[in-house]
């Protein structure tokens, strides 16, 4: 049976050679035999502390208390060191009190532990206070003292104090380790002077402290905070000069740096080197590279990276697969994107809102609106899904493209009843996708909410709203939209042209003229579309003097008529029976080289028929055929009506039969 001394001796050996498992076995044997060795407890505490198994430390200390084992200096210091590593300053203070009660004076190990415990607890002032007590006891600090102090400064963000302790340390002939140098670099919240960082690296070289991945990481973070990542190459040169050689971890950091500096090709070069060297890369590195390739438009490189990922046996995350689906979509490889989506569905993986948004947008981008609608049905079946702004946008677009305006309105009400924070894209998408289906009061409310959210309008949205309000006869609202756009500088020719058309259709001729003058005063060249709207409005109202005045303005502005202009004039003159003026329009058309379109001929046939000018109607029909334009249903209906009007019922019946034979419904 081993004696007390035997246990002390064997446990000392295990502690020296760090044999934790063997020490645990002997400790169990000791407990079974009934022997209680304080040194054995101390050994286990020290060994557990070295491997950071602090829960085991607590159990050992508890067993000591249960067996009434009195701690000695060595044991108390072992406990103090364990508490110091964990930042348990209250427990550490209890150990110090216990030492004082036993008449044991704290030594350098105790003081270092107290400085460390407050450093870990982020209590800089207490760390410094214990350092002052240290000096009052006329004890000489060692390397660990200053390393703990620098660590405490790093925790508290005290650069000035850290540099002071570092200077004292050098004066006493001590040196920081790599970790401390990294903390010293990290304390530079920004780079006021790049030399400060480079000098630290140079000092590492002088004392033979080789930088590692933690040093690189600290430098990168400081440069990133300062917005000076582009200057990293210079720092890398200093690191290499100090003996730094990139490890796998360093390569990961460098790839991220290259990506952040938009040095994608350099990042890919490092990536290729890592793959060839057989380095074990993280899934996040692959995913970040794929995202960078996609953002840079290098889609083939993104596919190559994912293939390397598969070769490495790494299972891509949902985010990575979604990014790849988006890449395939941008490349037009819809089948490949669909295959990935099908694989996700087969595996039963739970898709999130981002995944569904990517898949829907793939189909939208390809113009496959029905397929996108099918995916939306899957979204509706997933009760766990809470749509985010991007998914709501996709839903609105799908319903809009499929002409399902009522469904788009349902999506809008879901958005209203959710706790969604609306952004610019949501406001404008709702206006464009639901504007013609929502009540006008609700549309006006959306517009007002958008303005209250300090979101600027754009010309497309402005023109759309003017058109909606105008067609609904809400002229005041249409004009208000224009005024808001004017203040924000977002009006164009189309805005005024749309308003002119709105006033014209509402027979608000004074307002139409005012809008025309405003357009000119704003410096816009009045487009042909605005003139056409005015001609149509004046003509239908029988104000032919104003029609002539508008034509004169066009001529002065150097704007020639378009085929739409001629069609409008033919329509208004013809319906008023002004054949002479109509013939004049046709001559202008011929002189201008404007070829009549199907609408022109159909209108002429209809007008001539109404005026019982059958020969002219038939001649227009023949000219239409000679010009290569195919007659449509309107053509045949107008021609049949012309024969009926002229009492030629036989021809009318023949053309009516022709309508049926050609598949047109009468």
SSE layout and pairing:
Layout lengths: L3 H13 L3 H14 L4 H13 L3 H13 L6 H14 L2 H13 L6 H13 L3 H13 L6 H14 L2 H13 L6 H9 L7 H14 L5 H13 L6 H10 L6 H13 L3 H13 L6 H13 L3 H13 L6 H14 L2 H14 L5 H13 L3 H13 L7 H13 L3 H12 L7 H11 L5 H13 L6 H13 L3 H14 L4 H13 L3 H13 L6 H13 L3 H13 L6 H13 L3 H14 L5 H13 L3 H13 L6 H13 L3 H13 L5
Helix pairs in contact: 1-2, 1-3, 2-3, 3-4, 3-5, 5-6, 5-7, 6-7, 7-8, 7-9, 8-9, 9-10, 9-11, 11-12, 11-13, 12-14, 13-14, 13-15, 15-16, 15-17, 17-18, 17-19, 18-19, 19-20, 19-21, 21-22, 21-23, 22-23, 23-24, 23-25, 25-26, 27-28, 27-29, 28-29, 29-30, 29-31, 31-32, 31-33, 33-34, 33-35, ...
Please bin the fraction of helical residues: over 70%
Structural class comes to: mainly alpha
Distance between the termini: 117 Å
Major sheet characteristics:
none
User: Residue-averaged pLDDT, rounded?
Assistant: 88
- Pick out the low-confidence regions: none
Describe the oligomeric state of these chains in a short phrase: single chain
What's the total count of β strands?
0
Task: Compose a concise summary of this entry.
It is elongated and about 135 Å long.
Give a description of the structure.
The protein is mainly alpha-helical and 666 residues long. It contains 38 helices and no strands. Helix 37 packs antiparallel against helix 38. The longest helix has 14 residues. The mean pLDDT is 88.
Key terms:
about 675 residues, mainly alpha, about 0% strand, elongated
